[in-house]
Specification:
CATH architecture: 3-Layer(aba) Sandwich
Strand content: 15-25%
Number of strands: 4
Oligomer: single chain
Helix content: 40-55%
CATH topology: Rossmann fold
Order of helices and strands: EHEHHEHE
Number of domains: 1
CATH superfamily: P-loop containing nucleotide triphosphate hydrolases
Strand order of the largest sheet: 1-4-3-2
CATH class: Alpha Beta
Length: 154
């Protein structure tokens, strides 16, 4: 069983990724809200290539896109994700990747590239002054690699 300990809003920590079963999503969202996490969802079903991945990430983070730029390159996407995360008021932020089992099955190399981008962004937002933001990524899906959540930590 997966635990919510990795998401702790009270402990300092670095970027983390975890997997949870889709049936645990309501409990996960409830816990994130109680811990005052910022939260966004990205649906992996909509992802078929780099452009759709970066576009979905931009939509999920509701990032302001300057005229003439966009979510079409890894570096630009990293910059825009950073701006979006440090521009919101929460000190902890969870990005939920829904239908992650399809992402793993159909586009695994792209998933690894996405996580690499998010690791880079998370490392930067965590050190941002005066408003550090700890980024957590949760892969939500079906299958044995996505365990049910345990009871909430106290």
């Amino acid at each position: 069983m997966a635990s919510l300990d990795f998401l702790s809003a009270s402990n300092p920590g670095t970027f983390t990724v975890s997997c949870v079963k889709a049936t645990s999503l309501p409990r996960l969202r409830e816990w994130l809200a109680a811990q005052k996490f910022g939260c966004a969802c990205l649906d992996a079903i909509a992802i078929s290539d780099k452009a759709s991945l970066l576009g979905s990430l931009g939509d999920a983070l509701k990032a302001e896109v300057p005229e003439g730029s966009g979510w079409n390159h890894w570096d630009a996407a990293a910059d825009l994700a950073w701006q979006s995360l440090v521009g919101q008021r929460r000190s902890h932020f969870a990005l939920l990747i829904l239908n992650a089992d399809a992402f793993v099955r159909n586009h695994f190399p792209l998933l690894l590239q996405a996580l690499e981008l998010l690791i880079q962004v998370g490392a930067q937002t965590e050190r941002h002054k005066p408003h550090p933001v700890r980024l957590r990524v949760v892969l939500v899906g079906e299958g044995s690699q996505f365990p049910e959540l345990q009871d909430n930590p106290q």
